[in-house]
Amino acid sequence: MNERVSTVPSPAPWSVRTKREARQAAIKSWLEGMVYLCPSLLLFGVFLFYPLGRTMYLSVFHTDYQGHPTEFVGLAHFVALLQDASFWHSLKATVLFAALTVPTTVAVSFGLALLAHETRKGIGIFRTIFASTMGMSVGVASVIWMFMYNPAIGIINRLVSAIGGTPVSWLLDQDTALYAVAAATIWMNIGLTFLLLLAGLQNIDPSLYESARIAGMSYWRQLWTVTVPLLSPTLFFVTTVSLIQALQTFGQIDFLTKGGPVEATNVFVYAIYREAFVNYQFGSASAQALVLFLIIAIVTFLQFRFAERKVHYQ
Amino acid sequence: MVFTKMDYDGIEKEERGEKRMAFLELVEVTKSYGGKKSAVENVNVAIESGEFFVLVGPSGCGKSTILRLIAGLEPLTSGYVLIDGQVANDWPPHARRLSMVFQNYALYPHLTVEQNMRIVLQAQKVPKEEQVKRCMEAAELLGLTDVLHRKPRELSGGQRQRVALGRAIVAQTPLCLMDEPLSNLDAKLRAKMRSELRRLQRQLGMTVIYVTHDQTEAMTMADRMMILHDGRPQQIGSPLDVYNSPDNTFVASFIGTPPMNLAEAHVLNHSLLLQNERPIRLRRRSLPKAERVIVGLRPEHIEPAESGEESMAVKVSHVEWLGNETLVTFELAKNLYWTARWNGQWRIRLGEVVPLTFDEQDFLFFDASGKRIGAPSIKREEVWVHQ
Amino acid sequence: MKIARATAHYVLLCLCSVVILFPVAYALLMSLMDGAAILSGRLWPEKGTLVNYEAAFQQAPLGRYLWNSFFVAFMITVGRLIVSSLAAFAFVFLRFPGRDRWFYVCIATMLVPWEATVIPNFLTIQALGWTNHYAGLIVPFWAMAFGIFLLRQQFKQIPHELYEAAQLSGMGNFRFFCRVVLPLSKTSLVTLAVYSFLDAWNMYLWPLLVTNDDRVRTVQIGLKQLQTQEIASSWGVVMAAAVIAMLPTLLLLFAGQKQLRKGLMQGAIQ
To answer: Which of C109, C197, C98, C177 lies closest to C149 in space, CA to CA?
Structure first.
């Protein structure tokens, strides 16, 4: 048999690199890497790490109206917070708000995703409609819902009167304000949550459903046995993100109720905003901001610790 | 040819005058998607109870579609599916009492092996002790007893395949459908699982409809097979029938490795002119009554000529030594290469001219459109359709 | 049976669509009615009129607000894409000491809620003189850990052999980045762009803090201004403004929907 032996020139003997050359090469590659990272790191440094440190610094000081620290007070702000009824009220409002919006948003979006998951004629239109609230910015949504909630001419009270109930001042009544804002928030958040859950559903291998059909499982059985476990990573992600978002709500509150009536909707971020930019108490506002940071960290940690166990990763 | 009692049981019964009751029948089954050209067309077959029936063909030929139609995962466009003599077109998958092994196994990733196998039984409300019993039996049969508590992602490909099989076994349904279950395994494991599957099927007495694109799998596993091309059935028969007596050039060249040698030929008075170049004198064989035909000859029927024997001289263009046999590719005519398969290890150089000989009786003739000329050597089977 | 199931399905879909679309449809209808018609409590305009739309542009610099929102959102998006993709490229293809550590630092930033930094950031912007200035609205948001993360996942899917082949042929890193990596990552880039744009358009607290006059005010705050001015008198005008303000984002969502879904699916797999 003929075999052509190709002659490849053997590589040049590996030159002995001195320590200096090696170090120079390492520095060069480090510099190149840093050039690409520079913008991100610089911005993180200026607008994230420095401010975080500064917030911690300000929280242990009294500040003047320009935001300059004047007098070291140690943990006085924190202590004052814990004794302030308004703080606990705000905490309660925030927790209640999150409890109202997060499960409802996830449940409704899940239902919509299930409906929109099947392939039918024209399903694309419905998918677009369900996702449309993602395009509703906070100002637009707030102003529309504000009008809908209007006690005199808003559509909601009109409907209530039409079925014989008494019209309510939704946004001005202490008992209903938080629920009213929650309803608007749920509506706003459905769009993105729906898209995420739909994407998760469509990632599930269809042959798992076919196998279930052949075995004779009913629709609800399939939902429980196949859909929910395989969707659990997405459900977990969506719930975690929604929860963190809910704890940081601000826009709708500022628009619809300004924290009132009687602080019924004075959620945490709004309280911080008021303290810092209306009352100019930057020191205690910083303390509050740190408390919020702590709460979010704890909540996220708890989520990962307990809820993530139930998630089935593949 | 060796006839085994099992393969030809049906024909013996026929000779006794008994009617065969087909277990599953497809009558004029057609499936098309949205007015486009049909995915499968005019499929007719009767499958016996206990049979290992293979649907084989190249990718996209419609074999998986037929399987899904049988399973009830998709509706037919026209035709009938008959199960035990009853029209089952509208029956949901569960009512058809079948189990299915998917190409990618369709194992539930969040359940253990045992749970994966038992979930089918749970859906059918089988009592718990029975569930466990069947599960343990299947696990022992398949060698899965040690991994019952593991999740699919911790298993090897072969183990996952066996779990998928286990799910089908515990269901104890009379019919089992398999969609290319071995295609994700490496070659060695595939060969081993082929015989395992067949042994299991015989032991349990399941009727299996098996889809593959690999003609070797079809040949080694099938009791009977259906070769499909472009959605149309080309031939139905036992492996040897199909091998020895193909109905058209597609079947002839699809079944068998290396594929059957084919050439266009003009029919003259006592000889054939292959590809306008190579004349072959025919003595014993009567020629077909057409002017232009396609001639087929299997590689193993082309032998090296002894000295003194009447032979054809050809120039060798390529040789492959497999150890037990030698494949010699030669130029039959301009741009037409045929392959011969010789037993043993032959010393042949590229470009060498070698003499070849063959038996005229081994020729197969096809007309210009590819259809077989000449009576097939096996009697056609009849299908009784129950109204 | 099948038809019954299909009908029920469609009915459910339509019901849900009505509920979801109701606020938007309501706003649209109200915007086409004049003040008297709204107060009279009708639901459907007797004769549609565009008078509210005219008023919206006259009574407030709605056009200016829209332009500001658009400009700010656009610049944030472009900046984010550039900054994030550069960083993601470094994390995937370049080898340098401490690379993984820096990556963890970037990921750590995702854990810090924005409120913990807003006060000093405001003071910084004030000190830089960037209040009431586009820079103050845009620059702080260019670094985005989520963007780095998303693009890193995408870049990792590019076969490393492409990079090695480029190196062998003498292609520089930056050239490789521009000519190979970016074109191959279109889906993720579009997803990130759409998400960033919508996110930036939606910003509320920050523009509220750093802007004071109409020159740079974004449409979210603009709507709030308009609403306080027009309260109880011309809701129609306010609704018209809302309808106009929602058009850009709806259009973007509609155009980018397919890409967004593809991108989210890829993200969901991780």
So the answer is: C109
CB proximity under 8 Å: A 253-292 to C: 254-255, 269, 272-273, 276-277, 282, 285-286, 289-290, 292
The subunits that touch chain B, with at least 3 C-beta pairs less than 8 Å apart, are A
Which run of H or E residues covers position C41? none
| C43, part of any domain | no
Q: What is the DSSP letter of B382?
A: P
> What span, in angstroms and rounded, lies between the C-alpha atoms of B104 and B254?
25
**Contact at CB, C222 and A139, closer than 8 angstroms:** yes
Q: DSSP H helical segments within C109-159, as ranges?
A: 115-128, 134-138, 145-156
Reported as a single tens digit per residue, the pLDDT across B303-358 is 988 887 778 888 999 999 999 999 999 988 888 899 999 999 988 889 989 888 88
Which ipTM was obtained for this model? Answer: 0.84
Q: What is the residue type of B67? A: L
Token pair listed for C77: 């998006």
For residue A211, CA distances in Å to A88, B67, B98 come to 53, 13, 11
The CATH homologous superfamily for domain B258-367 is: Nucleic acid-binding proteins (2.40.50.140)
Residues of A in contact with C21 (CB under 8 A): 129, 132
CATH superfamily of the B9-247 domain: P-loop containing nucleotide triphosphate hydrolases (3.40.50.300)
pTM beyond 0.95: no
Q: Give the best residue of B70, B94, B99, B165 to mutate against chain A (max A CB count within 10 A).
A: B94
Asked if C124 and A46 come within 8 Å (Cβ–Cβ), the reply is yes
Please give the Cα distance from C66 to C248 (Å, whole number).
9
A201's tokens: 């559903």
Q: How far is CA A75 from CA A58, A80, A279, C120, in A?
A: 11, 9, 20, 19
In tens, the pLDDT along A242-286 reads: 998 899 899 899 888 888 788 888 888 899 998 888 888 888 888
Residues in chain B within 8 Å Cβ distance of A207: 102, 104, 106
Domain spans, chain B: 9-247, 258-367
Put residue A290 in one of left, alpha, beta given phi > 0 → left and psi -120 to 50 → alpha. alpha
Q: How far apart are CA C207 and CA C218, in angstroms?
A: 7
